[in-house]
Amino acid sequence: MNIYDLLKECIVIKKYGLNAGAFKDEDRERLDTEEEKLIFDLLKNVSSMAIKVNKKGVTFHPFMVWEGKRTFSIEDLTEDDYKTMESLALEQLPINIRARVADVLWTQKKNYKAAIVAAKAYYELFCVLFTDDDWVGTLDMIKRTLFISAQTNQKDIYNEAGDKLFNHVVKVNGQDKDFQSLRLLDILVEQGYGDFKILLTVVENIINNNINDVTKVEQAYRLKVECLYKIKDGVAAKKSNIDLADYYVDYAERILGTNLQGALQAERFYQKAIELYRNNGEAAKGEVVLRRLVEIQKEIPKQMVPIIMEFDVSGVNANIDENMAGLTFEESIIRLTQMVSFPKKDDIKKRLYKECNNSPISHMFGKNLVNASGQTVLALRPLNFNDPESDLELLDLHLHQKALEEQKISGDVWLTYSFYYIRNNYEFEISDLDFLVCNNPIIPEGRENIFRSAVYMVLKGQYYEAMHILAPQVENLFRNIAKEAGGLTITLENDGASKEKVLKSIFDLPELLDCYDNDILFLFKGLLNEQAGANIRNEIAHGITSEYMASSGAYLYFAGAVIKLLSYTSIKCYDLITTDGSKLKTFIEPGSDAIKIKRSSQNS
User: Nearest to residue 17, comparing CAs of 138, 104, 103, 176?
Assistant: First the structure.
């Protein structure tokens, strides 16, 4: 039996039927020649590839990738393979294999004859398989028909396919119960095909028929705006965006009182509405909605059911007592710094990846980071599990968030008691901190007294006052290091005025990154200036920090981190650690059961 007859007999035409499984070994043995068996193997490989159709065209990729291995890929095709496919009588192949082979020849080799075959084969497949009840798997076929025929100026097939889609959309007229009309309209609008005034009527019907389905309505409005821009009616397009904003506000009000989930969804729709109002000339309406949003955000935390977890940290406290026992005041400060870890960025990354692998579902979706007033300060998108480093800026945000979780624990569990131990076991004056700040090269000239005062306040438990001093002074400290390294910390405005660069830019200066430990810079960038991190400098600058916040875990960790940072460049600290027989050379590690969960429950 020849290859064409065999394939017609064993290949089934269906939406998802093109795969290597259709090419069975027993069928291969029925072929007449070894040459045809090799063709069989080649077509099996080509059919095994997965494809992804997008606005820019199509990509072919392995169907499976695992543990460094993969199935057949487009890169595995040799020049001899392409010559073999070009020698085939394409019209005699089953239409699904014909479409695949012809598309590969067109996209990879720009074979114009193959393009003609591919466009027609895809259209034939669409016509055979598309139904109102089962249409999802056919859309890529009609997309490839239109895309290839447009590329190769095949007007007849392009118009035939376009007319078929247009007429079907007009016939259904937005009355379908699923997303079929929206998806077909997407294709028509993308191609710029059809009478857009008629399509606008269909879109309006979709909006009116699905007023309670926010997903359909917002997609329909998007298509409406695109249609209006196609006919160059920008005024109507802006009006449509405002109509969508009005719809968001109305929908948000309807779902607001249902439950907590409804309130969280309403918050998102208010935010979308505000953005649309602002971008379409209705800033005043956006201001009104913003006031409403702030009211709602204040109420959301009240609806949340807190998860109460009680910990027994007596083991931690006992370990701190043991490590502090017999130390002088100066030694106790250094011991405290030994309880503050400065993690490496790569180690945080490893822990984050391990967490993602162990609990993939909890990391599949983004999350909103909310402040104490219930306002969303950052909408954190989920990482791409397959390639988390494809977006390094997003990865850094997740690393800052992971670091913050660990900083809160360190501050709440270790530093709360360490600070308490020091102020309750030592009599000390502000001058007793001279060893930490005097002649310390990291402290900018003339700032020794203010750093000493801030650290003294921390040790005395005056956290609220201390944080308002430490945050701006530490910012200035890093600005000073950047200047000393030759970094430009000011920017020139258009009017000729000089202005200090924002702190984020300071931490990113190449001169600072070249001269200072990058892990420490990343740590303090998160503590001071990242919304995904503790963001302490910004919270203090905007008057957000409360007395309660200033004594929370993240803030106490920040205070401990500053003291540790100063200890690195204190000569007296170095001498105390390196002195023969110093107790500071040993640190008693806590037991694995130092922290125990006493009770975990939801407060009803």
Answer: 138
Specify which residues 596 forms β-bridges with. Answer: 312
The three-point CA angle 11-14-20 to 5° equals 50
Cα angle vertex 126, ends 120, 128, to 5°?
105
CA–CA separation, 346 and 339 (whole Å): 20
DSSP secondary-structure letter at 88?
A: S
Q: How far apart are CA 270 and CA 295, in angstroms?
A: 11
The average pLDDT across 337-341 equals 92
Cα–Cα nearest to 562, from 463, 423, 417: 463
CB of 90 closer than 8 Å to CB of 101: yes
The answer to whether the CB of 217 falls within 8 A of the CB of 211 is yes
Q: Residue 120: pLDDT above 90?
A: yes
Is 143:158 a contact under the CB 8 Å cutoff?
no
Torsion of CA 317, 323, 324, 330, to 10 degrees: -130
CB neighbour class for 13 (10 Å; exposed up to 12, middle 13-18, buried from 19): middle
Collapsing DSSP to helix, strand or coil, 210 comes out as coil
Question: Which one-letter DSSP state was computed for residue 583?
Answer: G
DSSP code string of 222-235: HHHHHHHHHTT-HH
Neighbours of 295 (CB within 10 A): 10
Residue whose entry in the numeric block shows the structure tokens 């999350």: 367
Q: Is 569 exposed, middle or buried (0-12, 13-18, 19+ CB in 10 A)?
A: middle
In this structure, are strands 69-70 and 307-312 parallel, antiparallel, or unpaired? Answer: unpaired
Find the range with the poorest average confidence among 120-134, 162-176, 345-359, 490-504.
490-504
DSSP state of 1: -
Quick one: which H or E segment has residue 482? helix 463-484
> What tokens were used for 264?
């969280």
Query: Stretch 385-414: mean pLDDT, rounded?
Result: 91
Average pLDDT, the chain: 90
- Cα 94–chain centre separation: 43
The pLDDT, as a whole number, for residue 303 is 61
Please say whether the beta carbons of 74 and 61 come within 8 A. Answer: yes
Three-state SS letters, 121-175: HHHHHHHHHCCCCCCHHHHHHHHHHHHHHHHCCCHHHHHHHHHHHHHHHHHHCCC
Of the ranges 138-147, 324-333, 367-376, which one carries the lowest mean pLDDT score?
Answer: 367-376
Q: Which token pair is 275? A: 């953005």
